């Protein structure tokens, strides 16, 4: 019982009723059980309450009623286990009061292991899920409801402990000052500064002091009115709404104001934090979608820790305690399984990492067994996340969410987790080291990378560095990459084949696509990222098939679900000669194959494309040229088409040799994805590019060559 009780922040005196009643040593046990399933062997035994469910319905429940002598129970804690479910849409835990079912929903329920849930009627998790909170709660029963499909042999729900609770008396909202908390705040500060390293902090602080403007993103400021509930409208840009509700602006302003010793600014920042809490936590939020977005809530906890730490000397007792209590309430929200990756279609997602890291930080702020529970949960969940979302492939570790930008970002998260953890820190550090190795292998000779997946592209003037030639080949069959770095007459080149198919998150329609860098220029580009407004025309194009250097089938559906798509990547290298091959089944009923042969001592590639299946036409080879790349065409005596590529920043060029066809290209934004050629840069920035479209008969292989000139 002690572990479940501590996880809820309660002491024995806080218990109103319990099952098994022996936990209390007195007769305060349950008196009636009810289930829509059948009572399993051992139902209402001394060790567990168990129910079995068969197919035929997708709604199943178990309810436990208690004899409660005093109407003071406002919360509950439960230890349970579910098993044998083919699919669980959600698992709900709560209590029935009058005709209302007050509950939390767990959308990513874990099977075959013991789980716990604990919440009170006033907790943020109910507010975050949009559930009405009873004005006079009375918890005298516990109902577990499962919407899901049992496997053929049936499914089970087992409950091993239940506590009905009056209050939380263990964890004080007083922040514990310690060197470990100081280190955690420093980690949070360095993390937010590193993510926004292009920002102009001094200018942002000056604009805040002189014009009361809030910096929502680097270079994006909006006016703030003291009476405002938010600096932006709820119909504004999703990225700006996310930034505001994560309180990134307040954390960044607090860091700069503290560095400048601006006491007045620090006091104002504290007042705005209090206002956010009053508007969104103590009342119904004007923007609940982003106030209670899983990633944003985690970032907000870190921001509040920074603000509280830096404004402590300039904040009154009421404001200090209100912010400290908000941090405590956020930690209880983040530890809840009902809020874990709550806005994602899967439990395994980088947003969950932010939740666990914020929880680790919060565990250093409070001196209680409950805070120790947060720490244990965060470390266990992080280990589980890393196991599921990081692919170990030879000496490399690769983040499976199909984006080098996210790979680089979460590598920092793994290192942050290592710095915050005592146990497992060396394991986390080793993972980060292997992720760094992949980042280095994936980088071009100037230090930049392809803007793969949802990755912002850096402007060339910002990212171009020393161009270092290297001769190395890497094939990663599990994670789906093949990389060759070589040189041609001492000018370095890199070709990267991307065929990742382990995860649908941040995935573009880019299987078997390539990116090519040579002599200071990205000649074949990956289209980058524009914004998370995926349904808008530019983001939709950048994520689609017509933006990538790959084979395109115009009419066939494209599937990015790894459960339905088979991606295979192979390769070999022998004395500088490398051979890569990739295949995928993302197009319905079709297998697309690509092979590449080249040498590390010169840039001279032989490439073959093949499409097999009943629906192979029309097929196109799409070549998406990098920003600034131009071309001229000519023909060989037998009618083959030569494309000569040039760029104003390079003395070198490329020649592409294709079989006979009618040359076709597109430039800039058109009326459809097929008629468009764009790349993204920073947030909502894009540039016109040129794409070459080479039609071919999908029933036959198309062979083409590429060489440096």
From TrEMBL:
Cellular component, GO annotation: periplasmic space
Keyword Protease applies: no
Cellular compartment(s): Periplasm
Keyword Lyase: yes
Main location class: periplasm
InterPro entries, alphabetized: Chondroitin_lyas, Hepar_II_III_C, Hepar_II_III_N
SUPFAM superfamilies named among the record's database cross-references: Chondroitin AC/alginate lyase (SSF48230)
Keywords: Lyase, Periplasm, Signal
GO MF annotation, one: lyase activity
Domain Heparin-sulfate lyase N-terminal: 259-463
Coiled-coil residues: none
Domain Heparinase II/III-like C-terminal: 471-638
Protein name: Heparin-sulfate lyase N-terminal domain-containing protein
Annotated source species: Cellulosimicrobium cellulans
Organism ancestry: Bacteria, Bacillati, Actinomycetota, Actinomycetes, Micrococcales
């Amino acid at each position: 019982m002690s572990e479940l009780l501590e996880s809820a922040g309660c002491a024995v005196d806080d218990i109103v009723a319990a099952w098994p009643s022996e936990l209390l040593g007195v007769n305060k046990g349950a008196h009636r059980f009810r289930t829509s399933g059948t009572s399993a062997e051992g139902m209402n035994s001394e060790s567990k309450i168990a129910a079995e469910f068969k197919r035929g319905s997708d709604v199943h429940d178990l309810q436990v009623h208690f004899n409660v002598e005093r109407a003071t129970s406002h919360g509950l804690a439960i230890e349970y286990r579910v098993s044998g479910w083919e699919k669980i849409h959600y698992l709900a835990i709560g209590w029935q009061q009058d005709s209302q079912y007050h509950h939390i929903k767990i959308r990513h329920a874990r099977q075959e292991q013991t789980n716990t849930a604990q919440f009170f009627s006033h907790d943020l998790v109910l507010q975050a899920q949009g559930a009405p909170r009873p004005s006079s709660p009375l918890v005298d029963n516990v109902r577990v409801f499962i919407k899901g499909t049992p496997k053929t042999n049936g499914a089970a729900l087992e409950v091993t402990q239940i506590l009905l609770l009056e209050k939380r008396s263990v964890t004080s909202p007083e922040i514990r000052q310690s060197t470990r908390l100081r280190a955690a705040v420093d980690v949070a500060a360095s993390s937010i500064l590193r993510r926004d390293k292009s920002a102009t902090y001094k200018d942002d602080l000056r604009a805040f002091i002189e014009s009361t403007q809030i910096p929502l993103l680097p270079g994006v400021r909006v006016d703030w009115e003291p009476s405002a509930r938010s600096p932006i409208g709820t119909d504004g840009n999703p990225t700006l709404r996310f930034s505001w509700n994560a309180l990134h602006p307040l954390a960044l302003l607090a860091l700069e104001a503290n560095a400048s010793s601006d006491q007045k600014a620090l006091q104002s920042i504290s007042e705005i934090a209090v206002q956010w809490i009053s508007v969104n936590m103590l009342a119904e939020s004007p923007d609940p979608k982003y106030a209670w977005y899983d990633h944003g809530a985690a970032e907000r906890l870190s921001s509040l820790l920074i603000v509280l730490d830096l404004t402590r000397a300039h904040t009154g007792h009421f404001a200090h305690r209100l912010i400290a209590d908000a941090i405590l309430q956020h930690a209880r929200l983040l530890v809840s399984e009902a809020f874990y990756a709550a806005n994602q279609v899967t439990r395994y997602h980088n947003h969950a990492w932010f939740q666990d890291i914020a929880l680790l930080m919060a565990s250093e702020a409070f001196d209680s067994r409950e805070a120790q529970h947060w720490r244990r949960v965060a470390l266990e969940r992080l280990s589980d996340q890393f196991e599921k979302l990081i692919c170990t492939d030879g000496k490399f570790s690769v983040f499976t969410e199909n984006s080098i930008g996210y790979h680089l970002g979460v590598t920092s998260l793994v290192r942050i987790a290592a710095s915050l953890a005592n146990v497992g820190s060396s394991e986390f550090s080793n993972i980060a080291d292997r992720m760094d190795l992949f980042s280095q292998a994936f980088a071009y000779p100037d230090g930049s990378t392809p803007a793969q997946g949802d990755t912002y592209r850096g402007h060339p003037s910002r990212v171009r560095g020393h161009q270092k030639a290297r001769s190395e080949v890497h094939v990663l069959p599990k994670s789906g990459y093949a990389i060759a770095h070589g040189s041609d007459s001492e000018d370095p080149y890199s070709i990267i084949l991307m065929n990742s198919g382990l995860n649908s998150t941040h995935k573009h329609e880019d299987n078997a696509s390539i990116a090519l860098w040579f002599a200071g220029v990205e000649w074949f580009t990956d289209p980058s990222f524009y914004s998370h407004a995926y349904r808008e025309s530019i983001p939709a194009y950048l994520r689609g098939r017509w933006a990538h250097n790959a084979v395109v089938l115009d009419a066939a559906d494209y599937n990015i679900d790894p459960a339905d798509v088979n991606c295979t990547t192979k390769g070999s290298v022998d004395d500088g000669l490398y051979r890569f091959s990739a295949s995928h089944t993302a197009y319905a009923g079709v297998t697309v194959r690509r092979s590449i042969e080249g040498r590390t001592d010169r840039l001279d590639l032989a490439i073959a494309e093949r499409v097999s299946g009943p629906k192979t036409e029309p097929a196109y080879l799409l070549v998406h040229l990098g920003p600034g790349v131009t071309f001229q065409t000519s023909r060989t005596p037998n009618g083959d088409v030569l494309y000569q590529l040039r760029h104003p920043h390079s003395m070198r060029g490329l020649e592409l040799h294709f079989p006979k066809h009618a040359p076709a290209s597109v430039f800039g934004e058109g009326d459809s994805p097929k008629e468009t050629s764009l790349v993204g840069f920073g947030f909502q920035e894009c540039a016109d590019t040129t794409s070459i479209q080479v039609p071919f008969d999908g029933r036959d292989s198309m062979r083409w060559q590429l060489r440096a000139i």
